[in-house]
């Protein structure tokens, strides 16, 4: 498979991919009760973006505290959600484009930094990341979540920004919220 050079992919298609990526982050962050204030695509073309959080500053975490370990796990799931949402978007367009996705570099660096807090062997590390990927996938690929991500991404792609009230309205309209998406427990959850 030969990757499609970025300049051969229309700007609106690439902007939509970034919007879907940020929509995945925002949706999963909201479901994990993070203080999301909105999301934005960076001008002029919206080919990079960010999900914005209230009071986003350097955190001091205690790995002896179960809540802090879960905070790190949830942060990894939120970061993976953007990647999974974007990959799903490109999968739908696979007959037209096979992009070289480099929008995940900053997410991957953050995930690596967060993973470094846990002293896990390589096998445990693989199990943990498999669990986090599975958790993010189950949320992002749920039909209701997919509909909400599509709406969030359309708004982001069209206006380059979306605020918290608009995010909340979209999630409510698509029946995506705390306790509304039900999933079976993953075996890793019993270890945490």
TrEMBL record:
InterPro entries: Peptidase_M41-like. It comes from the Bacteria. Signal peptide: none annotated. One of its GO terms (biological process) is proteolysis. Gene3D superfamilies: Peptidase M41. One of its GO terms (molecular function) is ATP-dependent peptidase activity. This is Peptidase M41 domain-containing protein. It comes from Xanthobacter autotrophicus. The lineage of its organism: Bacteria, Pseudomonadati, Pseudomonadota, Alphaproteobacteria, Hyphomicrobiales.
């Amino acid at each position: 498979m030969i990757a499609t050079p970025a300049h051969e992919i229309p700007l609106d298609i690439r902007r939509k991919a970034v919007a879907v990526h940020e929509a995945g982050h925002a949706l999963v962050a909201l479901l994990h009760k993070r203080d999301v204030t909105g999301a934005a695509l960076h001008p002029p073309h919206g080919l990079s973006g960010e999900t914005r959080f209230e009071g986003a500053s350097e955190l001091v975490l205690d790995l002896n505290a179960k809540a802090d370990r879960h905070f790190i796990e949830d942060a990894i799931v939120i970061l993976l959600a953007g990647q999974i949402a974007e990959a799903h978007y490109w999968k739908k367009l696979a007959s037209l484009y096979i992009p070289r996705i480099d929008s995940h570099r900053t997410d991957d660096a953050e995930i690596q930094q967060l993973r470094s807090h846990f002293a896990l062997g390589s096998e445990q590390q693989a199990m943990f990341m498999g669990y986090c990927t599975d958790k993010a996938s189950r949320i992002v690929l749920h039909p209701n979540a997919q509909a909400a991500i599509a709406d969030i991404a359309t708004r982001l792609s069209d206006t380059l920004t979306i605020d918290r009230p608009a995010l909340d309205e979209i999630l409510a309209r698509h029946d995506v919220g705390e306790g509304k998406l039900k999933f079976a427990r993953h075996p890793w959850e019993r270890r945490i």
